[in-house]
Description:
Rossmann fold; binds adenosine-5'-diphosphate
Amino acid sequence: MHGLMMDTPLLITGIMQFTDANFGQREIVSVTADNPLHRYTYADAFRRARRAANVLKRLDVQRGDRLGTLAWNDYRHFELYYAISCYGAVCHTVNPRLFGEQIEYIINHAEDQYVFTDVAFVALLEQMQDQLETVKGFVVLTDAEHMPQTKLRNAMCYEDLLAEESDRYDWPDLDERTASALCYTSGTTGKPKGVLFSHRATVLHAYGEAMPDVFDLSVMDCVLPVVPMFHVNAWGTPYAAPMVGAKLVLPGPKMGDGQVLHELMESEGVSISLGVPTVWLGLLAYLDESGQTLSSVKRIVIGGAACPASVVEKFRDLHQVYVHQAWGMTEMTPLGTFNTLKPGMADLPQDQLIAIQTKQGRGVYGVEMKITDDDHHDLPWDGKAFGGLKVRGPWVCSGYFGSEEARIDADGWFDTGDVATIDPEGFMLITDRTKDVIKSGGEWISSITLENSAVDHPQVAEAAVIGVAHPKWGERPLLIVVRQPGADVDKSEMLSWFDGKIAKWWIPDDVVFVDELPHTATGKIRKVDLREQFQDYVLPGS
Length: 542
Ligand code: ADP
């Protein structure tokens, strides 16, 4: 027997309409190329989204069409998120930091019909437009005054297009499984793969994200996502923040600028901010140099890569900010786990507390997790056994765009490619990527644990650990270090740093000092390149 409740579809349109009715006057503040502090309300944003939907109609965009965006986090990109998805088309956010060839591949693979671009990326698109055969035209996200001279075919000015349209538009009734957005994972190996989000997954993810033991979002909050809107929808904040009526602050092209971030945080009263570790290392360095502190930020969410203990401690001790680690991936919209304490944990001795806080966190309702061995047998949640991490749930992808291949096993589990332990309290700790794990004498060594420990050394700016061939053990760890400016830490000092911190047999066999490490477009260390560079490296004593 079915229940007698309404089958109301879970649509992004619903978030928009609810926010408009309840929080229409809450603000969105953005840094843009043509305005350092643009300010308007959710009601303004959705009014312009309706105009943008009329533009799509005029351009004869069809349901299901993919429309590309190459844009930073600002209000125009926010409007397009809603206009495109609620129109029934797919908002394909393209990462402009990728190599040109990858951008071409992604736009062609998605068969984008139009591309909406910031002025900053016009030159880039001009170079590749002949290769972008499906693209009928380019809309430049600016006004007439700032519209560049461009050779882009069928180039249009966004503000001119909006000005010609009515702000009345009847949003269509969509099936909740309708595709809403498309995001390609940058992929450290192989071709980028498209993750196709749905309205339903996006709405459920926003609910999950806003919960008290997750982002704990409310109408009282002011949210600053320092994670790009072209990277897994800025971790879902453009949906979760309006859903609860939180004010939204968007840093535009100034993501990596410590001074601008600090000014925005102070002047707008930011209470929660999110980003990858590199962003926070940059902000801490700025605060340190300038002697500034944070007065309104209460919590910072760090994800995308492991968060060193020193970052948690500095924010806590110098700025009274609580750091939450989060883990997820593009294929998971992206949220998987979030680190909030359980009762009694806050009273634990500092070393035990920090050991918990630097784990990736507990599962969020909506995502099931398990770890398995090489034969796919479940491993215990004892905090010791580590194995392949698998996930399942309504905001986890089941396959990639344009590929027939199912990416889930017979029981519906998606293999994350991460290796992890889970403790009896449900806290998950990523120990590696499957492809990065170091196998020494048949036992696994976690490269991430070694890297985190190395980065905690005060003279280390960045560190990577890779496995290098060893005649006896198969593989042994090699530590590659970028020193802090002016630092002179040497090999023996570096190796003795690990004494007492990790098992003796995990201590790297050698240390190499370099000026910089190779990074992916999303700021992660490119271990593939390092493995190639050091493939013939001979470890001492081997
Ligand atoms: P890409 O960088 O390829 O665009 P994602 O952002 O989807 O892709 O990356 C997801 C991966 O990032 C995860 O599978 C995991 O390896 C890593 N990751 C994400 N969050 C964390 C974290 N808190 N700690 C360690 N690794 C993380």
